[in-house]
Design brief:
Belongs to the asaB hydroxylase/desaturase family. The chain is 10% helix and 30% strand. The protein is built from four helices and 13 strands. It is globular and about 50 Å long.
Length: 310
């Protein structure tokens, strides 16, 4: 039930992994590539829907609501949105995003390894169909509460994008280097009024709520977490988000302690009147590896926005 003090909050349906006893002896999986569907079903997961109260970050301080370690809301005007169709390593938007992260984390070592585009559609039944996620063939929003990278998968994912020399330097001295996988998420439509991205306060999540899920493909065997629903979980979104309002969030952190959540759970969801919106949500997310020497503090930078104007 919504309370009057929760100004801007909405009640919406979200998808979670089922709390099944079979996970005690069977590993859940979700195919990352359609090329494997001839070998097995796309997933062995039964997703379940729960109605959640999702509060609006415009009426609170984001670092208070979601904690300072895994999430930041930044105000940043991009100069290079027109370059997003350029599919190569010299894309100006990718360079701009790298510079943004270098300033935020106060480090010179940032490697942007992937950009993924998403566009909402009206066909809810096609949610599990994989697409390239390119500018020309965008993927669908991800309607499942999840963390992109599991605790055990982080170093393996990072190693894919490091040279042999870089791997020797950064992966074998945890006392000196802190490694993070970071997502920079930006709307491309005028504002998001149909399918926002919601984040769960990691302090409201028990580690036991995170179910490790295999994500096999032809090129890499990844692992993520899908969230099991619990009533104490606290969810937040940003109403009417515009392209200059950018989410920077951590998917994996080498310094996350045992028993803590190593990446922030998130999910797309439909607002109540989403089908009446004329312009569907379009977004781009850049995934990057951030490497910094110990002693730097994500919370200490002064480039971040607290509240944003509506």
């Amino acid at each position: 039930m919504l309370h009057t003090r929760d100004k801007g909050a909405v009640s919406a349906t979200m998808r979670f992994i089922d709390d099944s006893p079979k996970w005690r002896h069977e590993k859940p999986y979700l195919l990352l590539s359609s090329g494997l569907v001839d070998e097995c079903p796309p997933t062995n997961i039964n997703f379940v829907e729960h109605t959640c109260v999702i509060k609006d970050l415009r009426y609170t301080q984001p670092e208070t609501a979601l904690g300072p370690d895994l999430f930041r809301l930044m105000v940043h005007e991009s100069k290079y949105l027109d370059s997003l169709q350029q599919q190569d390593n010299d894309n100006p938007y990718m360079h701009e995003t790298v510079d943004l992260l270098k300033g935020l984390f106060q480090t010179d070592c940032v490697i942007a390894y992937n950009a993924r585009f998403r566009r909402n559609q009206n066909n809810y039944q096609t949610l599990e169909v994989n697409s390239p996620g390119t500018y020309g063939e965008p993927d669908l929003p991800s309607f499942r509460a999840h963390v992109d990278v599991s605790r055990d998968c982080g170093l393996r994912r990072i190693q894919r994008y490091l040279s042999e020399e870089e791997a020797q330097t950064y992966l074998h001295d945890s006392e000196k280097w802190r490694l993070r996988i970071v997502n920079v998420w930006r709307p491309l439509c005028a504002q998001v009024d149909d399918t926002p991205l919601a984040f769960c306060d990691p302090r409201s999540v028990n580690v036991s709520d995170l179910i490790a899920v295999d994500r096999p493909s032809e090129n890499f065997h990844s692992e993520m977490y899908i969230l099991r629903n619990e009533p104490n979980q606290q969810w937040y979104y940003l109403s009417h988000q515009k392209p200059h309002e950018v989410f920077v969030f951590v998917s994996w952190d080498s310094d996350a302690g045992q028993g803590s959540v190593s990446g922030i759970p998130h999910s797309a969801f439909h607002l109540p009147d989403w089908k009446d919106v004329s312009q569907p949500r379009e977004s781009v997310e850049v995934r990057a590896i951030v490497i910094e020497s110990k002693g730097n503090d994500f919370r200490a930078t002064n480039q971040l926005s607290g509240k944003t104007s509506s």
